[in-house]
């Protein structure tokens, strides 16, 4: 079947992109720290396909699709993503670690995760959706997070001198990896969907499980390749996921009502069961990270939460808004 070869081809390109981003991240983290590198630089690059999908859906006035994509991707990120990264770093890495120790900066980033989570929930409850005011507040939170992360660079104690050649090489890898992700994520998702249909995968499983895994593949590949190379680099991957989730809670959600306003829709309803459950598991994630030490058993907690995400998605109406 030709579609199988297409899927393998696109997956290979995304694996290459993940490897390039991983190599770039390891070098840039020596200068900018794990938090800014993972939470801002890599997060923006790896979340880009999700931004493109949400913006396109909003321009088409398919707000339910846009919100569902953002919520589903975020829920998967903080369950399956964290679980597998922790398990990889502590078990399957070439240089496994007994536990992942998070720096004070990462724990502060986790506070931003909690803050954006609470603010997004309160704003959603206020008008049973997001309006322009809400969008501007959420976007402002994102830029506050970026500003704080940038200011923290000056306090990075582990900064190392990097040669001009290594700088150029790392930024070149970053650009190539970003281009590969932006270019080939969409056809990879399409190929996965087509392949699943040919194999007779049920539509509900396709919509809830397979398509989100495919769309989030670039980010997860980058994180997994990083920790598989060295478990001590796990904080970069953790920061990447935290930054990506802050992206979802602030900038991504903030864009939706702004495009809605342009379309003449003054309030975009986002308050459904999946949104509330995503808020809950994000709070659980913050509790886990606030301790500063992540152990192997926590990987299984996150994987169990992913099973609950799938269960909630299967047994609650995706179109039911509160």
- Top CATH class: Mainly Alpha
Query: Please, what is the average pLDDT?
Result: 82
Summarize the amount of helix as a percent range. Answer: over 70%
How much of the residues is beta strand, in percent? under 5%
Straight-line N-to-C gap: 44 Å
Task: Describe the fold and architecture.
There is one protein chain. With 322 residues, this protein is mainly alpha-helical. It has one domain (35-158, 214-315): A middle domain of Talin 1, CATH 1.20.1420. It is 80% helix and 2% strand. The chain contains ten helices and two strands, in the order ααβαααααααβα. The chain has helices at 2-59, 63-92, 104-126, 132-151, 164-198, 203-215, 217-229, 234-262, 273-290, 296-315, and strands at 99-101, 293-295. It has a two-stranded antiparallel ribbon. Helix 2 (63-92) runs antiparallel to helix 8 (234-262), helix 3 runs parallel beside helix 8 and helix 3 (104-126) packs antiparallel against helix 9. The chain is globular, with a radius of gyration of 19 Å. The termini are far apart. 49% of the residues are buried. The mean pLDDT is 82.
Layout of helices and strands, plus pairs?
Layout: H1 2-59, H2 63-92, E1 99-101, H3 104-126, H4 132-151, H5 164-198, H6 203-215, H7 217-229, H8 234-262, H9 273-290, E2 293-295, H10 296-315
Antiparallel strand pairs: 1-2
Helix pairs in contact: 1-2, 1-5, 1-7, 1-8, 2-6, 2-7, 2-8, 2-9, 2-10, 3-4, 3-8, 3-9, 4-8, 5-6, 7-8, 9-10
């Amino acid at each position: 079947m030709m579609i199988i070869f297409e899927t393998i081809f696109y997956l290979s390109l995304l694996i290459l992109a993940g490897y390039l981003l991983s190599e770039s991240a390891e070098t840039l983290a020596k200068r900018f720290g794990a938090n800014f590198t993972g939470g801002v630089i890599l997060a923006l690059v790896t979340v880009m396909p999700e931004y493109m999908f949400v913006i396109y859906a909003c321009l088409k006035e398919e707000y339910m699709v846009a919100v569902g994509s953002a919520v589903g991707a975020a829920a998967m990120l903080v369950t399956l993503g964290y679980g597998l990264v922790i398990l990889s770093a502590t078990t399957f890495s070439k240089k496994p670690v007994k536990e992942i120790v998070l720096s004070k900066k990462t724990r502060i980033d986790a506070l931003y995760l909690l803050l954006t989570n609470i603010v997004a929930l309160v704003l959603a409850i206020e008008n049973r959706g997001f309006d322009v005011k809400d969008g501007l507040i959420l976007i402002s939170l994102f830029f506050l997070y970026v500003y704080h992360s940038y200011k923290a660079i000056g306090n990075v104690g582990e900064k190392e001198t990097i040669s001009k050649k290594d700088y150029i090489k790392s930024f070149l890898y970053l650009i190539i990896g970003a281009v590969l992700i932006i270019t080939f994520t969409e056809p990879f998702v399409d190929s996965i969907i087509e392949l699943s249909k040919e194999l007779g995968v049920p539509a509900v499983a396709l919509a809830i499980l397979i398509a989100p895994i495919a769309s989030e593949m670039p980010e997860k590949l980058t994180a997994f390749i990083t920790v598989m190379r060295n478990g001590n680099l796990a904080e970069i991957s953790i920061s990447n996921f935290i930054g990506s989730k802050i992206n979802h809670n602030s900038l991504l959600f903030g864009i939706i009502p702004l495009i809605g306003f342009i379309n003449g829709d003054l309030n975009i309803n986002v308050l459904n069961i999946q949104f509330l459950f995503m808020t809950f598991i994000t709070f659980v994630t913050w509790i886990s990270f606030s301790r500063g030490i992540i152990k192997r058993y926590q990987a299984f907690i996150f994987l169990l939460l992913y099973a609950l995400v799938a269960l909630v998605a299967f047994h609650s109406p995706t179109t039911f808004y509160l």
